[in-house]
Amino acid sequence: MTLLFCSASDNAEVWRSEIAKRLPDLEIRVWPDIGDPADIRMALVWKPPAGMLAGLPNVSLIVSLGAGVEPLLEDPTLPDVPLVRMVSDGLTVDMAGYVALQVLRWHRLVQEYADLQAATRWEPMDHKPASAVTVGILGLGELGAASARTLRTMDYRVLGWSRSPKNLDGVESFSGADGLAAMLGRTEILVCLLPLTGETHGILNAELFAALPAGAVVVNAARGRHLVEEDLLAALDSGRLRGASLDVFVTEPLPPDHPFWRHPKIVITPHVAAITHPSLSAEQVAEAVRAFRAGRPLPNLVDRKRGY
């Protein structure tokens, strides 16, 4: 069996090396040098060119290099074969660290102290203890649950909202429309880690911002299309929101003339909250290949109707 690797943002040779350590008998080809398309039975991809997968007549398994699979599902020519998403310890640890970093940035007044340093001013400021700061997390899947657990070890009060009820130690959980409204009213720092679906598209909008306490902060590390960009700018400029940390955007790379770049209340990172590290994630790819070869149930199989 032959696997095709296709990603413009990942190092193909590093991935080839890490997979070969685990599956030395697996032939790996790298797009666009695929040889005979009929040879390809499996594809390991991140944002492949539209229609590329449809040109592989015998592809029978697709593995996403990311946790999100909406770029694949949006391709109307995507072959109707099993689709596996990435859920690795490396991604989970990375995301929990990113969320903790952004919560601390806003809670512990990091930007304010940077401004004071630039002005050569020694001026201690007061901040609340972590136990008095409420963080609300939208999405309690693998990444959301790990982030919630990390914040609890730092003594933050953590609330969580999900599509269906969840039970996490130390986390007050909510679900449904009524649950969302109840959580938002108590949330000082809101973190979005939802999958992108028809129901969650544009969920970070003016109505949601109005439901948060005045001066709240929004962190979006999920998908750019969760956020209505114009609504965020209006909420920041009016003072409704204190600030925002954004790792994902509707258009990536973020255009140089986009107003987010120069907004004093926005922190930007270039979609790096959770990176798929080959050394930590190749084993999941190998396990998917082993399961496929043996006819066993596939790990982290995507439900296409739900979108994750």
UniProtKB/TrEMBL annotation:
GO terms for molecular function: NAD binding; oxidoreductase activity, acting on the CH-OH group of donors, NAD or NADP as acceptor. It holds the Pfam family 2-Hacid_dh_C. InterPro entries: D-isomer_DH_CS, D-isomer_DH_NAD-bd, NAD(P)-bd_dom_sf. Residues 103-273 form the D-isomer specific 2-hydroxyacid dehydrogenase NAD-binding domain. It comes from the Bacteria. Keywords: NAD, Oxidoreductase, Pyruvate. The keyword NAD applies. CDD domains: GDH_like_2. The keyword Oxidoreductase applies. PANTHER family: 2-HACID_DH_C DOMAIN-CONTAINING PROTEIN, D-ISOMER SPECIFIC 2-HYDROXYACID DEHYDROGENASE NAD-BINDING DOMAIN-CONTAINING PROTEIN. This is Glyoxylate/hydroxypyruvate reductase A.
